[in-house]
Amino acid sequence: MRSGEMHLSLTIENVKDFILDLFLAGTDTLSTTLVWAMTELIRHRNVMQNAQLEVRKDLNGKIRIEEGDIHKLPYIYQVIKENLRLHPLSPLLVPRLCCETVELVSYTMPVENWVEINVWAMMRGPKYLEDPEIFLPKRFEKKAIDFGLANFEFIPFGGGRRICLSKSFALASMDLWLAQLLFYFDWELLGERIYPKRIMTSLCASIVIGGNSDWRLGGLNHHRLGFEDIKGFLRIFH
Ligand code: HEM
């Protein structure tokens, strides 16, 4: 940049905006998705058990799960995909502005028209999926999905030029964190009067969509590991 190769000058405002972008796009997104994933898992105990079985069987004997272990956990990856399908963080993506007039099916979209893309509805489309309202990670067992490069019916990270810059990082982080949550702890709903099927009845929405949070989960240290063994992991979730 300093050598002038890129023919653009970067101001301190540009740098600040960029860092702000990363904070805004990179914090709530991951934590909200993880909360949705745990919500679905507590509502579907069989899926939680299968995922725990996978991570505990395949990583048996290890105390720490590392990035390199993730590829051994295909079921957890399916859980993440299914979770993103049912709970896309930006249900309408980022709005687009038409640069030219476009004819699409029987509609004319004039130049400078704003376009919202309803990803939430697309990913629940019965045309593309069986039982689209059901949380069923196994549906991704045989279906190869490339997140918005060719499969435009499945675009939780958006698509085209404005696709999420951090798709790979976000997927790897969610994989690792979910695997750790399931590896280290056994999960139960706290409180006497809450039933798994009744949580998540309301949503709070802005550009990012999240669930209600008037319920709490408690995790029991499954491997009876000492604080020293899991403190690195706990620090992330503090
Ligand atoms: C579960 C995690 C995440 C999801 C579901 C997600 C989803 C999205 C979506 C839907 C868009 C808009 C794409 C479009 O309109 O086509 C987007 C844009 C963006 N995301 Fe993510 N995101 C996640 C995590 C992250 C993280 C961790 C970062 C950064 C560290 C990040 C950085 C960005 C940036 C900078 C953009 C704007 C790209 C542009 O407009 O050119 N995202 N993300």
From TrEMBL:
It comes from the Eukaryota. Gene3D superfamilies: Cytochrome P450. Heme binds at C164. Keywords: Heme, Iron, Metal-binding, Monooxygenase, Oxidoreductase. InterPro entries: CYP450_71D, Cyt_P450, Cyt_P450_E_grp-I, Cyt_P450_sf. SUPFAM superfamilies: Cytochrome P450. Its cofactor is heme. GO terms for molecular function: heme binding; iron ion binding; monooxygenase activity; oxidoreductase activity, acting on paired donors, with incorporation or reduction of molecular oxygen. Belongs to the cytochrome P450 family. This is Cytochrome P450. It comes from Dendrobium chrysotoxum (Orchid).
